Amino acid sequence: MSNVLMVRHGQASFGAANYDKLSTLGHQQARWLGDYYRVQGLRFDHVFVGEQVRHRETAESLCTAFEGTVEPFQVHAGLNEFDFKAVIAAYQAKSANQQVLEGMTPREFFKLLRKAMLAWMSNELDPSHHPDFQETWTDFTGRVLAAAEVIGQAARNGRVLVVSSGGVMSTLMAHVLDCPNESIIDINLQVKNTAQITYQATSGGFKLTGFNATPHLESSERSEFITYS
Prior knowledge:
Pfam families: His_Phos_1. By secondary structure, the protein is α/β, with parallel strands linked by helices.
């Protein structure tokens, strides 16, 4: 049985001035997932979230489905998504790519993000390329694995719900499966909003038990509400 359920945040505000908040649909996706957990009889002994607004809002909307009290959220900075705007800005400065993010289609944006992430993972970017770029790939993966260690400890005493972002979730999954860095990008771009990646946390580490599941969105009435941003 899985004792760690990692959930990607609901649909955020892609294309808006502030991406870091849920859309109306994002809140609904989270409520549907909470309803699904309630019907399945799932309760959580620990709830971890990142510091970003979309993580907290997802957890709050999800937990409205539960009757009675819910354990206070445990906030861990290691669950924060990487600063994709800074990574892209550094890549653009290095490569003289001056595409404007505003107005991009999701397909155009993710194509640019893939190139930027590959450069980041290869240690080709540094703060001299852009002042907002401060976190190396090694720093990012280090904090993700540190958060996983804390979550693994908590899972020894019950079931854990984690709300984070695609970059964090795909990085941990690739580490668990010992995949090359390049696969992280492919995993990341597949993870749906409010999809879950599940693990069995043991003394020997995490074992993957499920990937990208959205049982709360699989009906014919809801399949149109599956999103990726």
